[in-house]
Design brief:
Two copies of one chain form a homodimer. Chain A is an alpha/beta fold. The first copy, chain A, has two domains: 150 residues, FAD/NAD(P)-binding domain, CATH 3.50.50; 198 residues, FAD/NAD(P)-binding domain, CATH 3.50.50. Helix content of chain A is 32%, strand content 25%. In chain A, α1 runs parallel beside α8. At the A-B interface, α4 of A face α4 of B.
Chain lengths: 397, 397
């Protein structure tokens, strides 16, 4: 190890940004070199992407320049893609260079988990980045434009695969967008069909059943057709095959059914389950005490031995804990075990509607929608303070 | 002929609308039944379509509900597509019904003339209706979105086939739109290429050479690459082959190279040249004294024996003349020969730029751009008076 330890953070998502910000705050002058590597020069707010994907909000409300979030005098920002993680050499191979590290924090984004459904990777779109959601939005608009020229019914039929949080939040925005699109393109709304297909026996698996029922009723009223307990067997360029062979026509298929870890971790020789590394209590990769894994790539179990789902909430808490533990390691202090504290769950159901469980209490309708907004604003406040809240916050509508 | 003659007008373009409006004004109560047939319930302003096609203006500035333009107490409006014109039976077969007539005015829109260039009909888009321009706009935006996901360079390369008025006006708007799209999708403008390809030895064939040069300089400065005197040999899904075999990569090809008459006229047994009927001096189809052909489907020759190009200007004048002649025929009066009077020519070159020849005088730059706006406003005034000018007129920008 050199006299000044080098810390490299891969990915400026929820986990990576929180780690970087906390390190920036905790570390003394010349105590360590910190480099944050990210493919884009902006951080995006994944929990907000369902809106620009449907076109109900602009992407600019869902991203922030990283330079506004970190102090570039204290942290070096490298805009590049990671090609390889060489644990033995303590080196990161970038698209256009290399970096060596003493401490590594892997906060890279996950990848879509399609469970081997044939055609899904080829023909479905996923909500996972600014670029991908702009594509979904444009794809949907293009289908409306094409429908007015070729009259093919699959142009205005939509399948959302997965009725977990991402699926339900997106399908709600899509249902809100359809009337606008119908007006803009002179399409009869009665001809538009939106299917939300979920293999599990319930939508929003694991969520309070009363709220799930409320959510489904809200979405049905917005025109969504649910296919629950119905697996997608195959994804085609013009639709999906579900259940016992029924074909749902749809030129637009959006897959929200799952996330797995980034392939780079397995390629680095780390032991993974669905691409994720089961980290130790200090968030370190087993056998690599200088390598921390947070966010979508880390696997943390609760007291009942079940893994926490990958959420923004857990990634943020991991970022804070990880920064503390790296600083402790540099100072040769004791690290702190990571303990996840749930602050509750909120799912938006489009304009003015949401469901939430916070502090053991259930919320729905307008109140839950306000809670959703509070969660969003709180996050903006955490990473960027009042100026960011004022700049990116959505207070109305 | 029944006691009250039935007049059927096919198409509510420039010619059809002007005919309908003049008939409505000229005819006395119960002198004739007039029916206007149109595929859409709106009239569109073809000379304005290059803007919504590029996305520099909304389609709403380019269309007007037909019900605002005609008096539905005096004229019946039938929203339907014409499937067949049966001249012997004096019947029109519509998609969903039939109409019989005593006098027929064929003002249907033309079709793209691709001169048999292989692949052009399949892979190129054309600027010819509200539906087609919405598709072009969405196609372009979709390519930008896709480029950010697959990085294929043809996504942000554009070929406009034809550098006549339509081609040049569209290419200018496209060049104006590119910087906005680059900003919205985080694309480096340097990577975008726009080609305007013309087989003839000059852009804007037949126009004043000094103004043509000015136009080309304006467009080159906006980033357009001209290929003049270079024929397109083939159109592919991902570009065009030009000249001696050079491939121009482009996921977007817009063909503006020509218009031919509507295929329904030839199918009706009328003698046509490039789908157009060489009408007599009263705008009637030869051998069918109750059938008038105006606009894109009519062929009228000037004193030098050369056909007038199909323009909004000639279609409007034909509409006025045609209405007079139909009224004269009903009243057993002498018809008036059609004489085209050129009011000049204006071509817009995007924001703040245009070229014009009016009354033998040349104009360019800001002055010509104002002339272009005046022409647009004058048309709105002719068909809809002050209220339409205020509602649809573009006075600024």
């Amino acid at each position: 190890m050199s006299s000044i330890p080098k810390i490299v953070i891969l990915g400026a998502g929820y986990g990576g940004i929180l780690t970087a910000q906390r390190l920036q705050k905790e570390l003394n002058y010349n105590e360590a070199d910190v480099t944050l590597v990210n493919r884009h020069d902006y951080h995006y707010i994944t929990t907000h992407l369902h809106m620009p994907a449907a076109g109900t909000d602009t992407v600019e409300h869902a991203r922030v320049p990283i330079s506004k979030l970190i102090d570039e005098f204290k942290i070096d920002l490298v805009k590049s893609s990671v090609k390889e993680i060489r644990l033995q050499d303590r080196k990161i191979i970038l698209e256009d260079g290399t970096l060596s590290y003493d401490y590594l924090i892997i906060g890279l984004g996950g990848e879509p988990e399609t469970f081997g459904i044939p055609g899904m990777l080829d023909h479905a779109m996923t909500i996972r980045s600014i670029n991908s959601v702009r594509m979904i939005r444009e794809h949907i608009e293009y289908q409306f434009a094409m429908y007015k020229n070729d009259n093919k019914r699959n142009r205005i039929r939509f399948v959302v695969g997965g009725a977990g949080f991402s699926g339900v939040e997106f399908v709600a925005e899509l249902a809100d967008r359809i009337p606008q699109l119908c007006k803009e393109f002179d399409v009869n709304p009665k001809n538009v069909h939106i299917y939300n297909v979920e293999a599990a026996p319930s939508a929003l698996p694991g969520f309070d059943p009363e709220l799930v029922e409320h959510a489904m009723n809200v979405l049905k009223k917005k025109g969504v057709t649910f296919k629950i307990g119905v697996p997608i067997k195959q994804c085609l360029p013009d639709g999906v095959i579900v259940g016992e062979g029924e074909k749902l026509d749809a030129a637009t298929v959006v897959w929200t059914g799952g996330i797995r870890g980034n392939a780079l971790l397995e390629q680095a020789g780390l032991e993974v389950m669905r691409g994720r590394v089961k980290v130790d209590e200090f968030l370190r990769a087993p056998g690599h005490e200088h390598v921390y894994v947070i966010g979508d790539n880390s696997l943390v179990f609760n007291n009942e031995g079940r893994p926490y789902p990958p959420t923004a909430q857990i990634a943020m808490q991991q970022g804070v804990n990880c920064a503390k533990n790296v600083v402790a390691a540099i100072r040769k202090k004791q690290p702190q075990p990571f303990v996840f504290t749930s602050k509750g769950t909120v799912a938006s159901l489009g304009k003015g509607e949401a469901i939430a469980v916070v502090g053991g209490k259930k919320y729905k309708g307008w109140k839950a929608a306000q809670l959703k907004k509070l969660v969003d604003l709180r996050y903006l406040f955490i990473i960027g303070g009042i100026p960011l809240v004022l700049k990116k916050g959505r207070f109305f509508g």
